[in-house]
Amino acid sequence: MSPLFFLRENLKLVFKHSAIPIFLVLATIVLVVYSLSFPSYLAMKQASAQMPPWSATVDFESKNRSELNALREDLSTEFAPVEIVNSCRTEALVSADKRSLNEANEAPQVLTEALLLEDFDKKHFPADVYIPADYVISGNPYDGEGLLLEAALAQDLGVKAGDSIYVGLKYPHGSDEAQNVLIPGMSPDEADSYAIDVVYREIKVSALVKQGSFVDGIALLQPKESVAALEDEICTSVTELFLFGPSQDKIMNTWRRIQHSSNMEGVYLTPASETYQYHQKEFMRENGGVKTFVGVIIVGSAIAFLLLVLDGLWKQQKLMHAFAVLVALGAPKKKLIVSQVVSALFVYGVLILIGCFAGSCLSRIAYPIWIPSEIKQMVFAAAGLIVLGAVLCQSIVLALRVKRLDIAQSFFGETE
Amino acid sequence: MGSLISFEKVSFSYEQGSKRRKVIQDLSFEIQKGEFLAITGPSGSGKSTILSLLAGLKRPQSGKVVYEGKSVGDFSENELAHYLNCEVGMIYQFFNLIPHLSVLENVMLPALIGGVSKEDARRKALDLLADVKLLEKTKSKIAKLSGGQQQRVAIARVFINNPKLILADEPTGNLDKTSTDRVMEMLCRMRENNGTALVVVTHDKDISSRADSLLSL
Ligand SMILES: Nc1ncnc2c1ncn2[C@@H]1O[C@H](COP(=O)(O)OP(=O)(O)O)[C@@H](O)[C@H]1O
Ligand SMILES: [Mg+2]
Prior knowledge:
Number of helices of chain A: 14
Largest sheet of chain B: 5 strands, parallel
Bound molecules: adenosine-5'-diphosphate, magnesium ion
Strand order of the largest sheet of chain B: 6-7-8-3-9
Number of helices of chain B: 7
Number of strands of chain A: 11
Oligomer: heterodimer
């Protein structure tokens, strides 16, 4: 009976004197948000500063897909052996118009952005039909607009309702779902830094839709579970090429020649070394916050730890009379100590758990960045250790108190 | 009637810094099963100390306290817990109930500690509360009761595990005359029904005159 007794009494005390518990939960939330977000943010900055210096990115001002392909071919022949690879990062929005879908007697589904395949990908992802990005009339999935493909082109491609096509889905960088698209001739390590976080899925063309002034089109529906994983990434239409070469010199030479060649208007090339330096600087600047971070976490954890210990000791004090009565009624001391320790562990465990849960939810809102699972594990393990440590301290004090407990003295007072 | 518990040349002194204060010296007496012993004496004469020794809460420096043939001072921690739970019951001047538990829960406590099932403990506790005329207060919190009522709860609690010996230290020291009579009447009646031995420390002549024997210090 005593375990339940102590649990109940400890909980009662939490509700009766809730200032410290509430403060503890709030402090935990702040600490968890901070300790989850800052290292993740730093890790992200560091990752972006780790671009290999022997590559470069070509950005284009308003080139469409066919112009881009032509340019790539030109560059490839002109600047061999530097390999030029379309990064396949032309993004398009895929969403479905609910009304149109209803007309087509299909259950409406939320759709979101997708990547469409390039020649490069076709080698790796064989399919019956590939849809070029040019054919996509993009819409805003948040407004429920439909992704429409020009019907004539769709017809040229031979796509009709019920066909399966491949669509590359973009996932947040570093997320579990993300997979690297291998670039020919790259080692897996190198490819890591070029993570193009795309997963290809077979998606069914479920309906032909008609909407207002739009031409006939094809709506692409995605499986629900993949949509959920996509989160709120905003689609941008970046058109860029990556240059890969045997050495930095070669790349830089190529880059200079591209820059100086007259027929390359509207082409901007950023050597990775520049990007690298930029990111490096940014990383160093952010890295300066590490001291503050460590300080805040240490001081914050110490305060939380002390509060846990003090609150626990104060609760013990309140329960000492009941403790003495129970011992006088023949309850074994060891059992009482264990009951109180388990109750304290439960009460503080729940409080800190609430803090951790709320903190990790809030961190997702406050810092919408990918938090590596090692950081999560570390933060939660630290929280657990703090609770365990505090309860251990309480237990030691409790054991000493019980050892010193003189029932005769406390109950058989000096009487008149 | 056989001997239940006895003092055999018991001496006890308190250490106060470097000084030793002898409170009891070579005291011997015997309590029979079902006997009612009253202990009287001036303040500071060692009455409470004797109760602590009987309860095994203190160990004599010399001599022995023997309960049913066994030396109380030699009990292991578990034996002592069992002794306190099942063999002796204590009643105090300041009741020592757990204030935020209900009357019924307080009475059930020793039985639950002793491993009796909740249902049985409850049934027994309700019977005892009927005996001390507190059935209508079973759900009340202790803090809401008068001193006399609290002492009656303590009496109900002391009987729940059918102890063979009850130790009461000034049980009415904190009560007015009416409550004192009522409490003592109930305690004496219940102990007679159960055949329990009783040791009462008291200044009250009325109470000591009811006892089978008297120990004056
Ligand atoms: N823990 C203690 N340390 C030192 N002296 C004590 C302690 N407890 C009691 N005494 C002393 O022992 C004597 C007997 O105490 P006690 O048994 O409580 O007497 P009574 O109950 O008869 O008033 C008193 O003089 C008291 O001052
Ligand atoms: Mg006394």
